[in-house]
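Continued from yesterday's entry.
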Amino acid sequence: MNRPGRRDAGAVVRSTRRAQGMTLAELGHRTGYSASQVSRYERGIAPLTDTTVLRRFAGALALPPQIFGLLPDEDARPKRAPIRAGTVTVNAPGPSVVPEPEWEDGDDPVRRRELLTGAAGLAAAGAIGVQHPARASRPSDPAGGIENLLYGHGLADAEPVPLAQLRTATSRARALFQAARYDQLSAELPNLIATATATREDADTDERLATDALLADTYIVASGFMVKLNDDHLAWATADRAAQAAATSGDMLTLADAQRSVATVMRRTGRLDRARALLIQAADQIAPSRTAAAEQVSMYGTLLQVASYTAAVDGDRGLAGELITAAKTAAMRLGRDANHRHTAFGPTNVALYQVSIAQVLGDNGTAIAHAKSVNPAVIPTAERRGRYWIDVARAWHQWGKPEACYRSLLAAERAAPGEVRYRPPVRRMTADLLRVDRRGTLPGLRAFAARVGVRT
């Protein structure tokens, strides 16, 4: 295999950083540069040719200097270099340039699923009152039911139900997701998808469009849940099925929501340009008129704020600012926090995204300032409250404030225990806190680590 030369150094830095689950801000902290400067190096806007700078990046990423066309260090000896593996640092041979597969959150989904225990058996009656013996999944594998279903196991066993009953069940799945009740969701979701599929196949002409939309909704929930599990392969599959069902539903807002799911997985798997373009295109297609309903305004604003976050992940500070400003305008037009179309969109949600955007750009002080402007009690869903506190914890963590980071993680657990238990960044931060808390100044940290699946 040919090794990349210096002209490809930015691409090597970018792919290796993502493969190691490292943000722009984290790499900037290790190398002494801002997140935006690291982004400019990665994209080739700023030339990455200086040998001193190249060696600094090689050291931060545990790469041999030869990968950038440099001579090895004079004192180089065969040794085991530390690399990031999920939430802990382990000793292993130097990593390849682009380990596969790579996940945005830096945690192997199979390993993650094995660590998550306590999900109920999938043969439970669930929300729609039908039993699915083929849906039985190991309690330690909350994605197992979805994975089986995607490959056809159990679909033939499902029976159609009345449209009103399916609509109620789909709304329940949405509610479970927004309440961060992921164990219960994993138990009920495969049954729901199978039943929604059977109901659509059995529907007459008058009900076919409605059942298409409801099936798309179930796959949208499934894709969001797979993202929580950090299983981007299954998130891709379920998002794609959501988009296919939404495209035939005739419901433009359902299609926009499905496109958001697809774009989320694109972002997580490194297709940032495509993700951003899809989100902006989807927003343009549903741009609300003066008389548009609140549901349309909410979906439009949601697409804009997700596009803004995607731009921030890509290091495009200017575009991120433009898009979040447009989302804020939509929220002001809506006038209040709401949950139309299960978006939880409103002024508070825009502020939550401002926290996330500042954090991912490495502007930790700005992230905390935005966070202080938010009253967590008015955040409309438990899932968003948990995400808020986790983003605050990430900002404190990047800032080197372990006590504040730990307090925020405890607040996240109080707000949404499931969100803390399922999110890989929580495990990484907890592992780091265990390493720095040598004197035991963070009371209860070891017990917290055990609850989120970090070995002490």
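--- second protein ---
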Amino acid sequence: MPPDKMTISAVIPLYNGAPYIEESLDSVFSQIVPPDEVIVVDDGSTDDGAAIVERLAQTRPITLLRKANGGQSSARNYGITHSKGQLIALLDQDDIWYPNHLAELTKPFRRPRYPELGWVYSNLDEIDETGKMIGRDCLNRASHVVHPKRDLVHCLMADMFILPSASVMTRAAFNAVGGFDEQLVGFEDDDLFLRLFRAGYDNIYLDKALTKWRIFGGSSSFSGRMAISRMVYVRKLLADYPNDTHRGLRYTTDLIVPRFFPWLVREYNRALKSGQKDAIQQALDDMKFLLPMHRTRMRLVLRMLMPILEHPALAQMLVPLGTMVRPALRRLLR
């Protein structure tokens, strides 16, 4: 099919999204350039979300698929497998597309390009649980993040910040890398787009907000499953990207471990404040796993602190002191 005739499939995973799914679907059917098909995948919901979709499907061309709960990656893969479009536009159940979302994101695909274009993505606006605006063009606030993706170092040193709801990709590219990794229930988007980049597909970034990203305390970004998935992803990165002595690039030591270790410190602090013993121990175990791979100076400092962290009562007493010590510690580790 000629590039200017490429068809679009909108795929929406649904899991207990009753409060938001109608607004999300309204945004799909308000597109200046409408999708050729709309697929919603009910991933084993226990609320009324699927019933809302069934009601909407009586007057709108929506295909509702049902499957046992397997997580967002599984639901997306399932929906894409059952879709037909050459272009795949993903939308999370609580996010919203602006009316020009598909018109802008699909435009670069409608002319031949070399190297082959794999995906186009955009900036986005952040909203709260009620849909009220939190911040416009929120990707501009992310430090150490480079758009579009042009080198492996920047893909590994910080989160990719390519939101599925703010991207369109080709079916050919998606299939070529095997889709979403279904063992991941967090960072599955980073993992997919990193594999697309490594496979040689080009990408384009549009520095304009085309999506409203709903983020709040009940989001998957803040779930315990996300913390577990993060370490699954870390182990996958460590296996795939050891230090490259030939190029003088220490992927593990200088990029991966420094990127994810602060997450573990935050997990430890959250668990410490809430008194969750299992979560405290898990964070400690994960820190101990990454510690030997850390930069030398940081490794020495953390080894001195670890005996304190292993005693939560003592660590709790020293939290106020840590607030005063942290600036000096940052200067030491530069």
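DSSP finds twelve helices and nine strands in the chain. The chain has two domains: 3-215, 241-332. Will compare against the first tomorrow.
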